[in-house]
Amino acid sequence: MANTRDIRRRIKSVKSTKQITKAMELVAASKMRKAQNQALAGRDYAQVINRVLVNLTDVSEPESHPLLEVREGDRELVVVISTDKGLCGGLNTNLLRAVTDESTEESSYVTVGRKGRGTLARSKKDLVADFPVKDPVSFSEVKPIAQFITEKFESGECDRVKVAFTNFINTMSQDAHIATLLPITALQLTGKRKYEGMSEKDDMAEVYQPDMRGAVYTYEPGASSVLDKILPHYLNYQLYQMILEARASEHSARMVAMKSATDNADGMIKDLTLEYNKVRQAAITGELLEITTAQMALE
Amino acid sequence: MPLKVEIVTPEKKVFSDEVDTIVIPGMEGEFKIIASHTPVVTIITPGELIYTKGGASESLAIGEGFIETSGDSVSVVVDVALGESEIDENAVEEALKRAEAALADTSEDDENFAALQAVIARSLVQLDFKRRRRS
Description:
Strand order of the largest sheet of chain A: 3-2-1-4-5
Helix content of chain A: 55-70%
CATH superfamily of the largest domain in chain B: F0F1 ATP synthase delta/epsilon subunit, N-terminal
Number of helices of chain B: 2
Structural class of chain A: alpha/beta
Oligomer: heterodimer
Number of strands of chain B: 10
Number of strands of chain A: 6
């Protein structure tokens, strides 16, 4: 049987682990809220850019733009948005499993986040680039990524660009999701996207009301050159939004993982304290027994 | 009639108010908008945006983007929009130096060349804007 000192030492170490997990839980909770707010803050931008793009694709010939061109072929570029740090439950595992399930021989990868990079490099995938992104994400960090994939797509090195990220559904559930980013399809512009799950309000749908589409704009200096300029902005924004979504998922997953770790620590402390008291009691009983026996022997 | 102006970036709504006129740096020179302007969508180049409200002019340094106007409202959609107080001159100068140094090392057909030039253009706009405010 373990002695009291060993048990005391274990209780102490579990307690300090609990303090750490508790702190991480609180930090993750506040970071999650921040990421959510950040995603909502870009809503106005999304509304205007969507409205203008829908209008533009109506008046110009969308087929003409290289970013809208649908190509036959199976060369895919997958942008994998994973986390930088671990301790967030099965988030990265699920994401990378989804990526592996969808991957073909001809897929190449761009990673955002250390965890995805490590795993993909170990499994000898064709890793073409890695972009580190800080937390919280700033929009200017996302631009180079969008630019890189645009170049790859326009030069014909890949026929499609997909993004694998974790879709934030709510605090308790996140879902590994793979979305096609390029070519930009008309469906993508007009359809309500699944990963707009951040807000309960369904305000994205309003943009597509028929009367909005009726507005006739003058395009300066011309519809197709305006389209040329706006599409990259749209792409930047999309990618930014997906990274934010992934970040919100990361923090909520970490929060949940840390919460259960804290609960487990509580359980362990309870069990260990019980054990400690038992051992202590046994020792006292043993000592009493010795004293009484000695007393009786003297009489 | 006042003109409703919204300046939005992917990170936040920077400005939302009613103004009298607004001048934006367009692709082919400055572009002034007053109320009841015909619906226009046009491209913005990095530069200075000036709006006038009740005789007083205010300005912001803005990055790339576009504007959409329909009648009495204007949406300015840009990647960055900074007021004078938000521009950190030293930080911008440093960024400019870094970009220039990097540019010296890259050849013209390098994929980063255009990006670096864009960084330099943006930094210069901000610096210029800040210095002009002060003097």
